Structures are given as C-alpha cells and as structure tokens.
Records
---
Amino acid sequence: MAGDVLIIGGGSTGEAFAGALRGFEPDTKITLVERGLVGGECSYYACMPSKALLRPAEALAAARLAPGRPRRSPASSTRPASSGTATR
C-alpha cells in the first residue's frame, strides 16, 4: 500500500474526501482502507427507507439457521387453530 495519502474509512465521508482530493490533485496516490462496507452503512441499510427491514430480516434468518437452535415441530406451533368461522 504505497501512496501519498492514506484514508481510513470508506464510508460516505472517506469516499467524498478521496473524490475531492482526486479532483484537486490528480497525480496524488490515494489509498483507501475499509474493513466493512465501502460506502458505509447508509448505502446498504441505514438511510434508505426501503431497506429499513433488511438487517432485521437477515438477523432473523441467521438465527433460524443457527447451530444448536431448538427446532419446533409443526404440531407445536404457537398459532391458534382456526375454527373455520369468521367473527366480526
């Protein structure tokens, strides 16, 4: 990783800084280091309302597949049995 500038964090601020620096100093060698999501959480989960339930849904799916998790049989479901008649 050789460069003139090292940017730690590839979130929205790190990307904006790298882009601005590239615009002002085009010959500058820039190294951007990110351990997680490039673009930050906002692009993936946090800021977009349509993705607001994505992280909880992923966590629920992972929990359902976790090793050692007790398995329920269909007969032990906690849902009440339907009586077949609608009530108002």
---
Amino acid sequence: MVGNSPTAYLALAFPATTRFVRISSNFSGFPSPVHEFDREAARLLDAHAGPLLLLFQEPERAAPLALERFALRLDPSTCGVVRSNLVHPRDTPTRLCPVSRSGSASKAVAAWPAKPD
C-alpha cells in the first residue's frame, strides 16, 4: 500500500492469507527520513518470495518515489481499478497493480538519503 488514502478496509476483500505492508503513509515512507518502520517493511518485502501487488488511491505520480525507496517498479499499464461504494466516482480511483523488484528492498532503504532533497 502506498499513500495517505484510507485503503486498508479493502484488505477484507482479500484471502485471509494475504499480507499487507504500507510502505508510504503520513508517518512513514517517502518523503520522510528512513526509520525502523521502513526497515521492517523492507525486510518483509525481501522475505516474500511470491508476487507483489500495489494497492493505492493516489495520483500515479505519487507512487514511483515511494516504490523506488524499496527497489520496486510499477508499470501503470498493468493496473486495474478497484471499485468501492466508499470512493466517489469523481475521486482518484483505487488501483491494484503488479510491481516488480529491481533489487533488495533492505539495501535500497539503507542507501536512501537521510534527509529528502
């Protein structure tokens, strides 16, 4: 999950075995300095051998920097729209997208600048 939008309620629509990690929010992730929450998210991502999906309701331009921090990449053409009666049709749609790894999330987080530019 990426962003500040309240999307966690959608987790209830997934199988109980699905794991969710929010890599960016109003208290962690880009543009905040790296802290333990980011390092733990990176460890969880590195430990997961299966496919990774991104769930977010932010403008597409918001996701790439959050993903870069964790060595993840998004191809927006692969995203699907998640419909919910809690999202107004005029609001930014909630999307579910496959993401790919470009390296170790833990190494990427460790290399991230201490303070954003």
